[in-house]
Amino acid sequence: MYAIVRCGGRQEKVALDDVVTVDKLAGQAGESITLTALLVVDGDRVISDPAEVGRYQVTADIVGDAAGPKINMIQYKNKTGYRRRLGHRQKYTQVRITGIGTETKGSETKGSETKGKARAASKAKAEEA
Predict the structure, then answer these.
(1) Helix, strand, coil % (nearest 5) of the chain?
(2) Domain tally for the chain?
(3) What residues pair up with 10 in beta bridges, in sequence order?
(4) Which domain range does residue 9 map to?
(5) How many CA atoms lie within 13 A of 107 on its CB side?
(6) Three-class DSSP category at 32
(7) pTM listed for this prediction
(8) Which of 20, 67, 80, 128 is 20 to 30 A from residue 37's alpha carbon, by CA?
(9) Whole-Å CA distances, 14 to 31, 40, 51, 90
C-alpha cells in the first residue's frame, strides 16, 4: 500500500515506514502531523476519487531538520570591479510515515500493518490472562 501526498507545494510517493524529506515544516522532532492524500494504491485497487480519497489519512512523525546542498552563486560585471559571491542552503524537514488508511474509532488507522498486528497481539494476550 502506498499513497501520493501533498506537502509543501510538492507531491511525494510514500509508503509505511518511509522517511521522506519535505520542505520545512513548523514543529519539533517527535510531533505527529497529518498529510493530505491525493491518491491511494492498495494492492490492485487505485483510489483517486476526491470524495473517497478524502476519507484516507496519512500520518507521519517529524524525525528532524535537514539541509540541502550548498548552492554557490557569483555575480560579476565586466570592467567595473563589481563581484559578489552568494550562497544558499535550503532547509528541509524529515518525516517518517506511520500510517496510511481510513479513519476509524479513536486514533487508529486501518491499513497500518505494523500497528494493527501489535494491537491484535496485545489484545490476544489480555484476553488469555
Answers:
(1) 15, 55, 30
(2) 1
(3) 7
(4) 2-128
(5) 7
(6) strand
(7) 0.69
(8) 67
(9) 18, 10, 20, 22
